[in-house]
Each structure stands twice: as structure tokens, then as C-alpha cells.
Amino acid sequence: MQVLPVKISRVLPQAVVPVVLTCRNKIWKMNYLGEGSSHKRFDSGWKNFVVDNKLKVGDGCVFELTECTTDCIKFRVQFLDGELPPNFADRVDGKSSASPIVID
């Protein structure tokens, strides 16, 4: 399971909600576990995303929140190769819907 940063979990529902991750024209489905625990996270479906994309400890991803309701949460995901993608560079002030997540 992947624990989400507090910054992004604050804007997500305090409920269990289906999640769709879109990356490189593919999709992965899992659940967001946002109720009860102080550690908001994705369920074990996260492992499929990690394996399919050959992610390793220390790799970074940018999650852009594209939809957020109590029925569905959608993120567009990009991988970091040592620097922030240009289309996100102007949104690093903390006011955007994009949040980096480091794989741990």
C-alpha cells in the first residue's frame, strides 16, 4: 500500500473511494482508503501500478488530481527523471492539483 502525503490527502474524501490512475495511455484501478486512519493510502492495487511501471524505491511520480468526488478519484501520473516535467514546473507553489509522491 502507498501512503499519500498529508498535503494531497487533505483534499481527498474521508471515505473509501475507487481510484483510477492514468499513465502512458494505460489505466490502473484501485481504492483510496481515506476513512478512519491518519495514514490515507491506496490499497493493494497500488502494487500492480508499481510492478507494471517497474518503479523502484526512490523513484518519483507526479500525481495530478483530475477528478475528485465521493464516487471516483482520478489522477494523471507522470514519472520524474531527475527533474519536474515542464508542464508542472509553474505549479510548484503548492496551489495546484499536482503533487509529487516518492516511492518508499
Automatic annotation (TrEMBL):
Domain named TF-B3: residues: 1-83
CDD domains (alphabetical): B3_DNA
Keyword annotations: DNA-binding, Nucleus, Transcription, Transcription regulation
MF terms in GO: DNA binding
Pfam family, one: B3
Any GO CC annotation of this UniProt entry: nucleus
Protein location: Nucleus
Chief subcellular location: nucleus
Record's protein name: TF-B3 domain-containing protein
